[in-house]
Amino acid sequence: MSASYPFNRGEECSWQPEDVARRMASLAGSVDSSEDLLHHGWSSKTIAHMRSAFGSNVMVGEDDEETKNIIFRKLPFLQPVLSSLLEQMKEPLILMLLFSALISIALGNTTDAISIGIALFIVSLVAAVQEYRSEQALEKLNNLVPHTCTVLRDGRVLDNFPARELVVGDLVLLGTGDRVPADCRVVDSIELRIDESSLTGENHPVDKTSEGITIDANPAITSQRNVAFTGTLITAGRGRALVLAVGVKTEFGQVAAALSTVETRKSPLQLKIDELGKRLAYLSTVAIVIIAIFGLLMGRPFLETLNVAVSLAVAAIPEGLPICTTVTLALGVLKMSKQNAIVKKLPVVESLGCATTVASDKTGTLTQNEMTSRSVFTLAFPRKTFAFSGVGYNTTGGKLMVADEDGFGKTKDVSSASEEFVAISALFSTACLCNNATVVADLDSDIGEGHLGGAMSGQPTELALIIGSEKAGVADPRPQYHRTQELPFSSERKRMEVRARPVGGRHACAAFDLALGSASSLQRAQKRKSMDGSMYFVKGMPESVLLECKTHVTATGEVAPLDEDGKALVLAQTRQMAASGLRVLSMAYGASVEELTFAGIVGMEDPPREGVAEAVWQLRNGGVKVLMITGDSKETAVAIAKRCGILGSKSDADLSRKSFASLDSTGSDGDSSGGLSDIEIGDSTTMSGEDIDSIPPQNLADSVVGVKVFYRVAPRHKLAIVRALQQNGEIVAMTGDGVNDATALKGADIGIAMGKKGTDVAKEAADVVLADDDFQTITMAIAEGKGIFFNIRCFLAFQLSTSFAALTMASIATALGLPTPLNAMQILWINIIMDGPPAQSLGVEPVDERILKAKPRMADDPIVTRALLLRAVSSAALIVFLTLKVFSNELDDGKVSRRDTTMTFMTFVNCDLFNAYVCRSASKTFYQLGLFSNPAFLWAVGGSVLGQLLVVYFKPLQEVFQTEALSFSDMIYIILLSSNILWLDTLRKKFFESWFNDGFHPSPLAKKEHMPKPKKRQWFFRGHTGKGTRRNLPWLKFGNSKEQKSKSAVAL
Question: Where is each P-type ATPase A domain found (predicted)?
Fold first, then answer.
């Protein structure tokens, strides 16, 4: 029986724990009371009833696995192989090939039958591997659900209890390091904190409460602060919780269910190959029937007529197309893998070339997924701007820099000799002492001995403060202190408090001693109670910390009164930082928590990855839209989107990146009056998860047009967004790294997962895995996809011209009553042996630069265009003309001899090889093509020439193919005659390019908006110039006007 949900989803959040227990007890009848449930758990009598009513804690696929045939369980790869083989039998091109193979076997043409069998095996094997890998997504997902847990039943604590045996209403005990076994309502929380990044993608642990809260209907995961979700990790504290949902009804289970039901759409190439197969099958059938009827009416033997007709059928159907397409895509996969893009499904290589939209997750994809200290504000230097260089959990090259008064003039490092160091030391010493993160120096790194960034543990914001302290030159004082008390951060207090004393009796920071020396009467009384130098160190939200602050640190480390104007100034700076997407924490210290000394605030962010802005620019310049989908707040999402160039014009993105750039670069002269805050982004460019819920599904496709940032979204929203974009005709490449991205990754046309920091579930559900987690790799992959499609068109033009020529030549000979120019074995040799290697080598031809910069092709663009057909038909016409000319010249005696067919055969093959050379490009003439630019082509043609010479001059093969040796003069004549293909191609490309070339269209965005290549990124200080230029950061605007300066002077 499938599991169901006991209440309307979300309503349990508003109830108090005893209300939840009472509702649960009512579901179980009168067996257990609510009091029994909260203190003793379910009784054994209730379990069967609850399992029958709401199901077991089993994910999708687990029950099915138990019922699989024993053979498939022992050999799991066998089932997808057989099923995919049966699926291939439905394809029109494959059906035609199978028919031709059967006829060939009946007539003794085993060579052709073997070639077709190899093609079918390759295609089926590739499909089987793809299906087998897709099934692994469910297995990886199930592995994230804990196998055991701790539950309270019949008043007994059951450790290592099988999680799959849980039922709704079970009382689960949660502790640090555990994974939540089912969706649970927290009924008892002791500093319980849970990492929900596997579901939400956000890396901030969430404080859980047992109290009832008021939330909207269909709440987002992030708003349910008293619910613990399946698969999430408990990072701190402990608690108890009642199971609300099990199995597929959990948030985690819905992801699994969606993965099992989301169907992978066929790629545009697959659709075009299907269409081509149907058309070729129809045309070839009509042509073959006509030729057979004419042959019989003219008195030719039935067996000979059937033999030639079947040979022509094979010639008309490019059975090499599946092989060449597979080989081309496989070589593309190999090339991409060398550039850190691991492609799991071959058709995706080509699909990347027509991607029109990249919908990216924010955390871990566009950003580093490593919190970084960015900005500092202290009332000791209110007119100075402090900012950090470097990103992530690494101190190498990172510094804390300060600009002169009001941001003018040169910048300098903050060091122990700086006048700012005393105040900065007080700030970061407090941040370290009120901190539980651990960062160990990586001594084995080649970056530098002893730099931070080795083994680490702790919450992201605390890690950012430890790294920031190291950059500021403040040594971690914790080894010199003994912690005597800790009050962890909670959603109610919004701050963390630590009481510690110096081990040697002397504080690590001079400001701490000065604070104790100037303590108020309350503080002195507190000090008398503890003469060991103990102090309180507080970290938290500025609003909460400021309530207890009576003084602030000065430049000399002494304390000064903190009045309301000073607090207002701090809160104003806090708002400006928050508006720019920074997370702000405040630090304070003192002998008493009621009379603290304010040290300052630190703004932190999860910064964009290096090169993301350039990658977004390249995608936009190539006509690809980039969207952001995140569970974070609107302010943070918009700020990161501006930084990455997703929102705003190119010039806005350049300005934003300059404002946030690294200190490693220097600036350039220019106007800097604009700021990030000057970029106005309308509501039409952003949409929340709540907005998506309020929009009728049939109207969502219209509503998402123009939206570039989706924020506060749940996993179910991501798939809805992808589907809406697809309804608008977009080819969507979805990137992500978490479990919450899995369904959207699978539902998108191209799913792209991060290889380093991505979850196994995301990587299994995706089509492409970025081994280096570099967003820039997507740009390379899309460019490669564009090139591969045009290469496929090139070898298709070559194959069609060969097929058309063979079919047309036979048709003309039949219509005119001439003997057949080529026998069946020669036709099969041309079609299978000669077309194979040269055609496959065309698939790896270096792509024209214009193609890489062209806008994405439309998904419904035909693979066979008018220009391609004109090229194929014109080439085929010349091949037929030259071959029949030789054939007619050799028929002067009225009899068909071996020499006649050999001359005709050799002429056709040579024309075919010259045609292969000009098919390397749709725009470049033969003398513009680099002879050695495609080594694979040279090897393929060389092998074909060698094989042809063996057919003509090797005695045993002469009997098989009915040929005879030709003289040297005959060969020179044939080569010179066949080279006319080169001159025809030059004429087409030089004077009739509009007819024979598909053309390359620049991106509409590139036409509309001038987008030069981004310059080297710059910092916001102009310290390298003589007079200095003001740099305007959105959160560092103190002193922007005389009025503000006046207010600040009064406040201080």
Answer: 144-259
